[in-house]
Amino acid sequence: MKKNSPATSSPSLAGSRRDFLGKSALAGLATAGATIGLTGCKEEAAPGKAAVPAKAADTGEHIKPGQLDTYYAFISAGHGGEVRVLGLPSGRTLKRIPVFNTDCMVGWGITNESKAIIGTKPDGSLQYTTGDTHHVHGSYKDGTYDSRWLFVNDKINARLARIRMDTMECDKITSLPNVMGFHGIFPDKRDPVDAAINYTTRVFCGTEFHMPLPNDGRDLDDPTKWGCLFTCVDAASMEVRWQCRIDGNMELVASSYDGKLAAATQYNTEGGADLAGMMSAERDACVFFNVARIEQAIKDGKATTIGSSKVPVVDGRKAANDNPATALTCYVPVGKNPHGVNASPDGKYFVCAGKLSPTATVIEVNKVLGWFGGDVKLPRDCVVAEPELGLGPLHTAFDGKGNAFTSLFLDSAVVKWNVDASIAQFKGDKAAKVVLDRIDVHYQPGHGYASMGETKEADGKYFNSGNKFSKDRFLPVGPLHCETEQLIDISGAKMSLMADHTAYPEPHDGIIVRRDVVKTRQIHTMTDFPNAVTPETAGIERKGNKVQVRLMSQAPAFSMPVIKIKVGDEVTLTLTNYDKVEDLTHGCAIPTYNINFIVNPQETKSVTFKADRAGAYWIYCTHFCHALHLEMRSRLLVEA
Ligand code: RUQ
Ligand code: CUA
Ligand code: CA
């Protein structure tokens, strides 16, 4: 187990902002009123430079002012559409990363660059302005996080987004064809065939809702003809590689440490179109995908396509896969209407939480591979334990010491149990002590995840219980309650509740990552932006009624005090932040024109708008940057 060493790439500490404000205020006052100087920037913070870390709190104690957290948590925001970054154990919100939502602080959904990532309609407006994020997972190398990317789903509009870990900004969004209710995701942890590829190259995506294939108006009155596709997306290009049609549906997704299997829980094996229909079967299933065989089948030309999509689709339905020697999928029966599926950090098991069954189902990875290889007779023979845990099991996390922690929605509790003991009990050992501890949470937990718990470096320190109801835990704020994220110390034999943290609805899954694993940069590289404004290109360029306004910012001024355009112009305003000082962000707002975005140090952003109202408009800086921040303005003069 790795020690929690202090980060070498942490942002420098509180106080540096105050320092640079003081110094640049002096410099700025000296040049106030003069034209902007572009070389005045002395204080440079190299990306990822080593900062002097404050003393890290490495116990479950209160983080004192000036102390840094020891872990990051990356959590979904549910139908808020964003991803959030917290520090743990303090629970402080460090960042909100806009993804499928729009965000007027950052300008996400306002700038041309963010609109290109989100996707636009022919008229330039956003294709979608909403999303529902559930599952955030990091890319892997050697079974643990490599700090390259985070991936997150959008359940509403069936999209997968990628976030760069160095800047913690979304850089790609991909739409999945012919799916609805895209819920679970998991990156692969290595390649199923090429042993040299020991890192994430694919992201697996499960689909919860079945629908007509293609969804063009056919089969509306006959849901028995509808179907669900499992989707594989290329992690680097973010293009959809392939899809696999299955029987039933998929909810949550997991991947094996050897890269060979992906798994998805199925609560609707019945293919039911209403509540009763989805609960009629005594058991449902966890479907396993043999990744190498699926990709070989596509190479062998065994795929078809659906509708206008060009993505190859293979048949993973039961009827086409009853011969284990050639099967692409294996349906392992599990408890009724299961929810989460999670891989144990030793790589040996998948644990499915029962939801409507008071059990978890433990499935051995080697036995599933054995079924595909002909050594294990029935899919159900892959089940090695089915411990009774309590009412409403939803998600399971691990401590890396052989113990599992399962959230119990109906019981409002988290139960700690031992995986080996559950296997012994399943084999008939009546003395096996499976359930080791139980703790009440407040109230009705959904997701639960442990520190480094989805990696081989699971360290058994913290468990976050994401509770769906807070009821009386916080001051009342009207009808909408926040959620309670409860931090539990799992390092001892007994679990102990450390803290209640509030969360604006509605986080689902998340991951807790040791802070030394995360490598960030606090300053962009100007040359990464092809449209960066330089002193040579700065100014106004007109081609007919298309006007390019190229602007630079350096505290406390924009490079042009006056910008003159005409009514009817189509204006593209590009702004490059020349400040290189860490934390020195500028904003750019244009009244009446509804424009608002920020540029971080050395970053370039642009907006395009139609100048449809004559008059004078003060372009002003929104982000407090300098003692003369309020004076940081330019006049946009729109001539009639
Ligand atoms: S799911 S807790 Cu996506 Cu469990 Cu919400
Ligand atoms: Cu620039 Cu405030
Ligand atoms: Ca069912």
Automatic annotation (TrEMBL):
<dbReference type="InterPro" id="IPR015943">
    <property type="entry name" value="WD40/YVTN_repeat-like_dom_sf"/>
</dbReference>
<dbReference type="Pfam" id="PF18793">
    <property type="entry name" value="nos_propeller_2"/>
</dbReference>
<dbReference type="Pfam" id="PF18764">
    <property type="entry name" value="nos_propeller"/>
</dbReference>
<feature type="domain" description="Cytochrome oxidase subunit II copper A binding">
    <location>
        <begin position="542"/>
        <end position="640"/>
    </location>
</feature>
<keyword id="KW-0186">Copper</keyword>
<dbReference type="InterPro" id="IPR041142">
    <property type="entry name" value="NOS_propeller_2"/>
</dbReference>
<comment type="function">
    <text>Nitrous-oxide reductase is part of a bacterial respiratory system which is activated under anaerobic conditions in the presence of nitrate or nitrous oxide.</text>
</comment>
<comment type="similarity">
    <text>In the C-terminal section; belongs to the cytochrome c oxidase subunit 2 family.</text>
</comment>
<keyword id="KW-0479">Metal-binding</keyword>
<dbReference type="InterPro" id="IPR041114">
    <property type="entry name" value="Nos_propeller"/>
</dbReference>
<dbReference type="InterPro" id="IPR023644">
    <property type="entry name" value="NO_Rdtase"/>
</dbReference>
<keyword id="KW-0574">Periplasm</keyword>
<dbReference type="GO" id="GO:0050304">
    <property type="term" value="F:nitrous-oxide reductase activity"/>
</dbReference>
<dbReference type="InterPro" id="IPR008972">
    <property type="entry name" value="Cupredoxin"/>
</dbReference>
<dbReference type="InterPro" id="IPR002429">
    <property type="entry name" value="CcO_II-like_C"/>
</dbReference>
<keyword id="KW-0560">Oxidoreductase</keyword>
<comment type="pathway">
    <text>Nitrogen metabolism; nitrate reduction (denitrification); dinitrogen from nitrate: step 4/4.</text>
</comment>
<comment type="similarity">
    <text>Belongs to the NosZ family.</text>
</comment>
<dbReference type="InterPro" id="IPR019546">
    <property type="entry name" value="TAT_signal_bac_arc"/>
</dbReference>
<dbReference type="InterPro" id="IPR006311">
    <property type="entry name" value="TAT_signal"/>
</dbReference>
<dbReference type="InterPro" id="IPR051403">
    <property type="entry name" value="NosZ/Cyto_c_oxidase_sub2"/>
</dbReference>
<comment type="subunit">
    <text>Homodimer.</text>
</comment>
<protein>
    <recommendedName>
        <fullName>Nitrous-oxide reductase</fullName>
        <ecNumber>1.7.2.4</ecNumber>
    </recommendedName>
</protein>
<dbReference type="InterPro" id="IPR011045">
    <property type="entry name" value="N2O_reductase_N"/>
</dbReference>
<keyword id="KW-0106">Calcium</keyword>
<keyword id="KW-0732">Signal</keyword>
